[in-house]
Amino acid sequence: MKIELSNTIKNIPENVFYPIFKLISEESSNGNPLLNAGIGVPDSDTPELLLKELEIAIRKPENMRYGSFDGKVTLLNGISHWLKENYNIDADPKEEIALVFGTKSGLSSIPSVVLNPNDTVLLPVPSYPDYIQGIALSQAKYEEIELKQENNYLVDYTDIPEKSVKDAKLIFLNYPSNPIGAVATKEFYEETVSWARQHNIVVLQDHAYSDFYYKDGYSPAFMQTTGAKEVGVEFFSFSKNFSISGLRIGFAVGNKELIRGLKEYNTIFHANIYGAAQDVVITALKNHKHLTSHIKETYTKRIDKITAKLDELGYSYFKPEGGIFIWLKVKDGYDSQSFFELLLKKYRIVTMPGHVFGHGGENYIRLSLSLSDEKIDILIEKLELLNNDLNNS
To answer: Half-sphere exposure of residue 177, counting CA atoms within 13 Å on the CB side?
Structure first.
C-alpha cells in the first residue's frame, strides 16, 4: 500500500535550519569541540526561585488533570497586571489575552486564523524563518520586503510597492529583531497603526526578546500604541526572559476577534498548557524585575567586548539595540554559507549563515551573544587567528 501525504504537508518549505544543524552535528563528532555562537536562547540557567516553584507545582493534583483551555485565571490576570505595570497596556484577561504553547506555535497559528488560501502576507526580511511554515500551512503566499540599514532595519512603508500593499492581508513585524537586533520606536508603531488602518492589513508583532534592550534604550510594545488593538496582536515569550524555553509557554495580546480566533484554533490542536508551567510563570511575573535585572548589564558588556574586537579586526556589523545577536558582514570573497562553513570546519565556531533569514542576509552571519565571558575570550582568540590567516593568504 502506498500512502501519499497531503499537498499541505508537501508544500511546507523544508525547515531552513535542518541542513545547517545536520552539518553542525557532523562536525561536532569530527575533531575538537565546537564553540556554539549560533544558539538562539540566552545562556543563563533557570532561576532557582522558578525551579522551586516547579517542584511544588508538579505535586499539585490539579496540575496532573485536564485544565481550562484558556488557562488559569490567576495567570491571565497576572499577565494583564504585568502588561499594565510594565507597558501601561490595558488588556482584558478574558477577551484580549491568549496563552500559546510557546510563541513559535502561536506565530505559526495566526496565519491560519486570519488568512484564506492564496491571500498575501508581507514578510520583512531578514527575519525569523519559521514564519514561513505558518504561512504555508494556511495555504497563503508571501512577499518579501527587504529591511535596509539606512532605515535602521525598520519597515519603510512608503517603499512597499502599491500592488503589494493592495494585495496584502497580514504583515509580520519582529522587534527587537532576530537576526539583526534592531528595536522599533514609538513613532514607528504609530506609523504602523495608521498604515494598517488605511490599507486594512492585520499586524502581527513578535516581541519575543522584550527584555533584551541595551544602553539607555527601550523596547516599546506595539500594544502601547493608540489603535494597535484595532489592527493586530503582539506575542510575548517567557522562554527568553526567564530561561524556561523547555516549558513552552507564551501569550498573545491584542484585537479581540483575533484573540478569539487564536483560542478557537488552540482548542482544535491542543488541550491545556501544563498547569505546573503556568504556576511557574505566575511566580516569574510577580518577580519579573528581580529575575531580569541582570539582562541589560550582562549583554551590554558582551556587546561592547565583542564589537571592540570586531572594530579592531575590520569587520562591518550592525551593533544590536536589542535581542541577543550581532548581524556580522562576512569577509570579502565569501558569502554567508561559505563563511559559515569556514568558521565551522576550520575554526570550530558555530554561527548561523544569513541566507537562511531571507533576502538581504546573503553576505552576513548571525553571531549569538549567549556566551559566557570565558567563551567570549575563546571566540575573540579564534577571530584573531582567522584574521591573521586571511591577511597572510
So the answer is: 29
Q: How many CB atoms lie within 10 A of CB 326?
A: 26
Distance CA 167, CA 160 (A): 12
- Residue 266 C-alpha cell reads as 488552540
End-to-end Cα distance, the chain: 58
pLDDT tens digits, 130-158: 899 999 999 999 999 999 999 999 999 99
Name residues whose C-beta falls within 8 Å of residue 2's C-beta, 6 or more positions apart in sequence: none
Cα–Cα distance measured from residue 145 to residue 141, given in angstroms and rounded to the nearest whole number: 13
Q: Return d(Cα 217, Cα 48) in angstroms, integer.
A: 28
pLDDT at 131: 94
The whole-angstrom distance between residue 142's C-alpha and the CA centroid of its chain comes to: 19
Burial grade of 362 (CB within 10 A; 0-12, 13-18, 19 or more): middle
- Domains, the chain, in order of start with CATH, read 7-46+291-392 (3.90.1150.10), 48-289 (3.40.640.10)
Please, are residues 207 and 222 in contact by the beta-carbon 8 Å criterion? yes
Instruction: Report cis status (omega within 30 of 0) of the bond before 126.
Output: yes
